[in-house]
Amino acid sequence: MSSLLQSQAFSAQALALKLKQTRLVNPADSLPTPPSCSSSGTTSPPVQTYEESYFLRSYEECLAIYEDASRSKAEALGMLSDEEVILLVDRGKVAPYALEKLFGMDELERAVRIRRAVVCQYPRGSNTKTLEGSNIPYEDYDYAQVLGACCENVIGYVPVPLGIAGPLKIDGNMYPIPMATAEGTLVASTSRGCKALNAGGGVSTVLTNDAMTRGPAIDFPSAVMAGRAKVWVDSEEGHTALRQAFESTSRFAKLKSLKTAIAGRTLYVRFATSTGDAMGMNMISKGTEKALDAMKEFFPAMVVLALSGNYCTDKKPAAINWIEGRGKSIVAEAVVPGKVVTTVLKTTVEALCNLNIKKNLIGSAMAGSIGGFNAHASNILTAIFLATGQDPAQNVESSMCMTLMEPVNDGEDLLMTVTMPCIEVGTVGGGTVLGPQQGVLEMLGIKGAHSKQPGSNAQTLARIIASAVMAGELSLLSALAAGHLIRAHMAHNRSQVNTPAASVPVTPGPRTF
Ligand SMILES: CC(C)(COP(=O)([O-])OP(=O)([O-])OC[C@H]1O[C@@H](n2cnc3c(N)ncnc32)[C@H](O)[C@@H]1OP(=O)([O-])[O-])[C@@H](O)C(=O)NCCC(=O)NCCSC(=O)C[C@@](C)(O)CC(=O)[O-]
Ligand SMILES: NC(=O)C1=CN([C@@H]2O[C@H](COP(=O)(O)OP(=O)(O)OC[C@H]3O[C@@H](n4cnc5c(N)ncnc54)[C@H](OP(=O)(O)O)[C@@H]3O)[C@@H](O)[C@H]2O)C=CC1
């Protein structure tokens, strides 16, 4: 008898568990019949019913608790089980993206867990797919740093392998090169470049400019009025008025220059500012908005069409960035001894210089490239961006790079430079607030705001990136010159685990030319 009861209790619990694992989108539409608890008139303790084990209360009861004005939403949700909260979400009483706000800071992981159950069932209505047991991790993550800063509607996080290239000697200091990437060969290649560069004494860098930009579009009733406004912005009076308004919004943003352009009756003003250790897009956008308010006092008829008129230019290819610079502009330089080119890089100074001209300069010119006079600057830059919490979409302009090579010392050695006018990075703000990314910045000695010289940490990060790009350029160009590219990628970049076994080849037909 008792074994029968035990088995009933077990099956009710198993059902509850199964339901948690395979929850339907709208449980009310598809509630299974609660299992029967009484079978033989026994007086043993009652078995947990479906209602008790799964939805402890009806929807109406849950709603009454949730809407009771005498308690806060966080308190109300604290009284409900996960399943009951899901019921409220499914009935449209709670927005899934608002869970963190409603739960409060102590229940952030619970909010994520519940959202996974609610949001991630595809196709909707299917009772088979939830994120329980999924490969997408969500536990043990500091969601407090994410909230209101890095992401909305969070269901977990996606880990990316973090490799270390180098160390690389940059301006006399040794730095490890952190690279978050899923492209095998990249870290190995960059490391080889570091080894060759170190053998020549390392990399020297120069920062030629440091200014983030924002370029609003402003309409005027006529081209004549737009022209008058342009003259005013370009004047000392206009510049001073805009600077004062702009700089009132931040302790760190300092207006450096204003560049104006007109198209018909639309005026574009490119605000260029230093932004301390922040990459600065929020900061500069806030300042620009304030400056435009001030401008409107002088030109009441102007209409700000958009704070961003693409004259900035953010996250899109644009010649203005390549020509004027955006973020940190860096030139990095190194000499690699000829014997290192032969022994470490398995090529020659002559072959490298020839290939660099034919590929990175002429090849890119033939392709009509803007700022793409390099082999793979974006590979190294993006991997460091991901590792250090930068805005990855800014790799578009940040990766603009011209790689130059020439023989020196009677052709014996290689002089190499990379010129990168738009490295957009920060060590405060954005994704740099996340724990792992902060750990990487700490490893480099540039975490957060510089204590004495605001901006110095972000500038060092830009120098590290340009130098690491040089290492990557040197190694890939050498592999191409030596004909080793595919050999390296077959060794490091083709998974033996996930690549399916060779299928039966199709019998080749006659080749036609
Ligand atoms: C932020 C909103 C959506 C508010 O917009 P809103 O209209 O105030 O929002 P709302 O509270 O009325 O809600 C409307 C809907 O937005 C969604 N929504 C609302 N809040 C959330 C949330 N927390 N989590 C998830 N979804 C949310 C949700 O779908 C909601 O509908 P509901 O479900 O309530 O019926 C709006 O102001 C917006 O879209 N702003 C634009 C922000 C943006 O796109 N930023 C991109 C980065 S900028 C940049 O990187 C590049 C740049 C700008 O430089 C490029 C350039 O040069 O142009
Ligand atoms: N708004 C937009 O159009 C765009 C936004 N973004 C996003 O913007 C975010 C980055 O914006 P960003 O302005 O860099 O960062 P934040 O918005 O986080 O602003 C930086 C904050 O740090 C403070 N701060 C403290 N110490 C320093 C220091 N030493 N140097 C600089 N600032 C310091 C600033 O103070 P204070 O308040 O005094 O300035 C400011 O409040 C990213 O998430 C990015 O993805 C990206 C592209 C466009």
From TrEMBL:
Gene3D superfamilies recorded: 3-hydroxy-3-methylglutaryl-coenzyme A Reductase, Chain A, domain 2, HMGR, N-terminal domain, Hydroxymethylglutaryl-CoA reductase, class I/II, NAD/NADP-binding domain
Domain of life (superkingdom): Eukaryota
Metabolic or biological pathway, per its Swiss-Prot or TrEMBL entry: Metabolic intermediate biosynthesis; (R)-mevalonate biosynthesis; (R)-mevalonate from acetyl-CoA: step 3/3
InterPro entries the UniProt entry points to: HMG_CoA_Rdtase, HMG_CoA_Rdtase_cat_sf, HMG_CoA_Rdtase_CS, HMG_CoA_Rdtase_eu_arc, HMG_CoA_Rdtase_N, HMG_CoA_Rdtase_NAD(P)-bd_sf, HMG_CoA_Rdtase_sub-bd_dom_sf
The protein's enzyme class: oxidoreductase
Topology term for the membrane: Multi-pass membrane protein
Classification via CDD domains: HMG-CoA_reductase_classI
Any Gene Ontology biological process: ergosterol biosynthetic process
Gene Ontology CC terms: endoplasmic reticulum membrane; peroxisomal membrane
Reactions that this protein is recorded to catalyse: (R)-mevalonate + 2 NADP(+) + CoA = (3S)-3-hydroxy-3-methylglutaryl-CoA + 2 NADPH + 2 H(+)
Keyword annotations: Endoplasmic reticulum, Membrane, NADP, Oxidoreductase, Transmembrane, Transmembrane helix
GO terms assigned for molecular function: hydroxymethylglutaryl-CoA reductase (NADPH) activity
Compartments in which it is found: Endoplasmic reticulum membrane
E.C. designation(s): 1.1.1.34
Similarity annotation: Belongs to the HMG-CoA reductase family.
Protein name: 3-hydroxy-3-methylglutaryl coenzyme A reductase
Native organism taxonomy: Eukaryota, Fungi, Dikarya, Basidiomycota, Agaricomycotina
